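Q: Could you write out the predicted structure for this multi-component system? I'm mainly interested in how the pieces pack against one another.
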Amino acid sequence: MMKLPLPMKVRVPDAVARQLPKVVGPLGLGGIEPIRRLVSRALINTLGYSTTLRPRALSLASDYTSWLSLTDRTFSGRHLPPSTPEQQAALPAEADVVALYRREQLTPASDTSVMFMFFAQWFTDSFLRTSLSDYRKNESNHEIDLCQIYGRNIEATNLLRSMQGGRLKSQIIKGEEYPAFLFAPREAAKPAVFKPEFVGLFDQAFITDVILRSAPDAQTDTFFAVGLEHGNSTIGNTVMNIVFLREHNRVAGILAKENPAWDDERIFQTARNILIVMLLKLVVEEYIMHIGPFDFPVEAVPFIADEERWNRTNWCAIEFNLLYRWHSLVPNTIGMGPKALDATGFRNNNSLVLEQGIEAIMAMCSQEPAGKIGLQNTPAFLVDSSNPNWPSVEQTTVGLMRKARLRSFNDYREAYGLSRLSSFEELTPDIELQQRLEALYGDIDKLEWYVGIFAEDYPDYMMMGELMTYMVANDAFTQALTNPLLARNVFNDATFTKTGMSILKETTSLQEIVTRNAASPDAVHVSFSYGSQS
Amino acid sequence: MMKLPLPMKVRVPDAVARQLPKVVGPLGLGGIEPIRRLVSRALINTLGYSTTLRPRALSLASDYTSWLSLTDRTFSGRHLPPSTPEQQAALPAEADVVALYRREQLTPASDTSVMFMFFAQWFTDSFLRTSLSDYRKNESNHEIDLCQIYGRNIEATNLLRSMQGGRLKSQIIKGEEYPAFLFAPREAAKPAVFKPEFVGLFDQAFITDVILRSAPDAQTDTFFAVGLEHGNSTIGNTVMNIVFLREHNRVAGILAKENPAWDDERIFQTARNILIVMLLKLVVEEYIMHIGPFDFPVEAVPFIADEERWNRTNWCAIEFNLLYRWHSLVPNTIGMGPKALDATGFRNNNSLVLEQGIEAIMAMCSQEPAGKIGLQNTPAFLVDSSNPNWPSVEQTTVGLMRKARLRSFNDYREAYGLSRLSSFEELTPDIELQQRLEALYGDIDKLEWYVGIFAEDYPDYMMMGELMTYMVANDAFTQALTNPLLARNVFNDATFTKTGMSILKETTSLQEIVTRNAASPDAVHVSFSYGSQS
């Protein structure tokens, strides 16, 4: 017989859905499965439908709609059309905007740990990938595909695979498993070059000109061969890559044992299926949960995307890319006293990870507060350029925002169903900041979006302002839950094996993944809240 | 305020929806706008939901689900998993299957014209593009993008554009507009080479080795520079390309006049937006309407895809590719008597089009019956190879079907919500054919899908069997109506201009498009039904 379309699920009105977690969460009702599912569905849909849906008319390809702007995802998408030349002419100087971000004294986050910051960096580097040569373009696959350990394309994946037992190439150092080293033994006074087996993994020129420019020679000796060019740029990227590589090889080992007839290819692909969904689950149930302004265990509701109109081809927008630049999370140092790590210490420092092990690094980062997301809280080294030929990170960001000619903060609030603010007082209670913004913009309606989302005040139980919360949740839910591995035709034993399904069901936190891959399981403490203890 | 999701439209049950057009059509109620829309929506959704939705677990990348099978659309998709080795071992010899298609005597279609056949060829060549080097792969953009005149990628598009006034390159011959010629003046005894301005439009080796192999030298002199390699392979492809090139340049001229500030780029892109939707409208409202087993004017319901769960990223499946091989439509000759065109006459024959003009060619094709779709009705030149080194078209097709290891005809019927047939008698009343199939397969459950869809009997008011109708309509509706140009955020004056919207609204048939681009408008007669007269 013909199949009838599923009846539409009952919709909880938005205004109710937004309040539900705040009501249900503290009551502890999130532990009751049907309630958890109902509230999660209501919440995900409220955020998923909070603005217009994809496909959108414009991308950065052109200011009018063209076949290119509708289909070529190498151009970054955009939520709203560009601002007018008049609006652009009225904007303050870029340098004055950059200065708004400069931290004088660290304001710590109320709850968020440096481990969260590193996870966010590692996670978003995989799908927010602005082209260095053309600001309109990106190199994203527009999917959560764990390219951090698998590479961005099949050629890179094949270089990273051992081609035996479905495993990724790895090495054992002091009894523990790490990715293979990327570079050949260094010749004195010469820049690092790839080992022959990794030639083609990245563009050698990019590595030489960009990555190695900021890395001390001695550190490059321990750079790992991982999926992305920036995979060794912080101790956070490094520990996350180690953890997921170990987990991949662990799962591959289980699959190989249970399926002796399977070849390397099938074991690898099935392990990858499992690992990608494991990451998706962490992202929704641990990471977004931490971001969310509620004490409620959001569930990645099975097959929710199958029934929704927000399930359309992913396309990372320039706004999603920019709003995610949470540079204010970065602390001045990790730890205190003589052993404190400054930026030189937590960047390009695989030696430290090899010396201390992932347990110690992750525990240290989990106990350390990140900075609070907001203006006037980005560390100096990301605001002020150390080299006149290279703009700073925040200068690059403000420059990109300007080139993208985005509409105002209030226009975006409206586009996400939020009321327009009528004054700087409504934006922030900080009178000095009100005055500073008033002096720059004159009128709340002229406030730039990128400044507004960081200026917007929020209570301690949130981790960013209202508009940024809506925007990040909308793009995250509607592009993570649309992953093909979560679809009704795909999410089943045939795709993951029964064992794979069990592993996914039983894995609920990053802490668990690290623990089962640690030399000292008892020493593992991984948390996105610095106040908590394992 | 937050936007609430739209309430779900009332669904008409499938069993009712399937009967509606047959009831409503003959009563002439299709002319009443709300009824037309209601019935169209019910029908499109019935067909759109007749099988499982995309994303599907498998493609031709592998027999198990992998990240590649879920994301890499250079591999052809597949609706059902492969058959078992036991099922494959039980199949008859390929040559015996090919022989089932051989036409002894033409069985004409009840209604369908040769013009329909040429339109179908021209239309499907743009998105069904099996790779010649790897049967698992394809070169499709998976969208109706009018690449027939615009090329498959931006490099080709740029070679085909004049870069002035938003126009495509063209030439005037005897006062009429045609595409530019593709090849440089031919040197005696040497194969044709591209004009310098078209180098890179296609792979020269492919043209030399494949296209020119079957084209007489003299004919290549008048090959046009169009979007696809096979664009000059039949007089049908040629007239369709001429018509759409003329219409593009006509629309570009109007846009240029109305928008004096626009540059070439904006005019071109906007004209292309209009032309693609014009084609989509023809496809749904004239072409699919002709295929459909009903006398009902199906409407491309505005925004229907925006609200449906079948709106998922397009992915052409191997079944869609194979079921569309309507070789039995091809007549032995077009016309009768000494002036009749045989296959040599209607293939690679732009000279004829230049000599007679598009009006005469299209009128001739519109009055000529196509063959009836079915077994035992493919002309000899497509069944029997003329060269032992090259398989025939039907041999290639059967070979591809076998390599794809498709499930049985009955398995596909079940997958589309149709009852399994229990005997060859149920399949066809033709006793000789029943016996022939019984001798080959023994059991209706073992009948191969590709044979079954052509063997299935159908009444005169249909143009193919039940399963093929369901399958072609499902893939067509769910991949044509998902075109981004039809989406709610896109289908508006900003994308097409007010004039463009009017042109789209007023254009309801290919006849109209040809007429406004013809030197002799009164001589235009274009119809998918050979019995009709303009």
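A: Regarding packing and overall arrangement: The longest strand of chain B covers residues 108-113.
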